[in-house]
Amino acid sequence: MPEPTREELLTLALGVLPEPPETVDVLSEDGGCFPLTISGVEDEMLFGYAPRGSVRLDVHLLARVFYPERGRYEVEFEVVETFFHSTHEALVHLAVSGVRHRKARRASPRVPISASATASVKYCRTLPRDTAMDVRVVDISATGCAFVTQKELSAGDLMVVEFGLDGRNVRMEARVVRIDPAPYGRYRAGCEITEISDGDRKAVSAMAAAASDHGSEEQRNPEAVAALAESRSTSTALSARLGIASDD
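The structure corresponding to this sequence follows.
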């Protein structure tokens, strides 16, 4: 099947995106999430306005849109040209490089886990680069993961996450897609994996597939696993301070 042309991709995108002029939030491959104002169409490209410090030539951006009656879609753009517009904004020309329909059900099965991990900042709105923090991974699949952290991160933040899984050291780059409150004043960061080795991906896929076949619905609930992990962690720390021996 031939690849769709730029004109065909633009037509698909216009059928999915809100009618211009409209502002959508986009994720950047460089890290971060920012508002992109799409103003119209010119020479088979979209044009609009974005924060000057957030765009460069050839950078790829991803918009996620949702219509209750039509479902979820992803539109990927490539910045083809940038022009000075104001102190804070750049005029950008965008080529549509992809349009995808996102199914409500995850394409890759996830498995709940409770693994201590280190997350290092590659890009973050609120923390310096290379800042390392202790987190707990609570679910994982071949394409995504979630971890619980004491830090309130932002959509678009890029993290390098390292943890042990079945005797294997797994290292991945993950982009925060959403952040939600978690038990005990912490936060649950839902992420998409942007980089992972083939070996690690295969190991995670096999583990997730086995768990989806054999685990109960309650066991596959990431929020329940996160709450249970945090509860056990807090109880263990309290028991240690009180000098109470573990039953394990």
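The CA atoms of residues 123 and 158 lie 5 Å apart.
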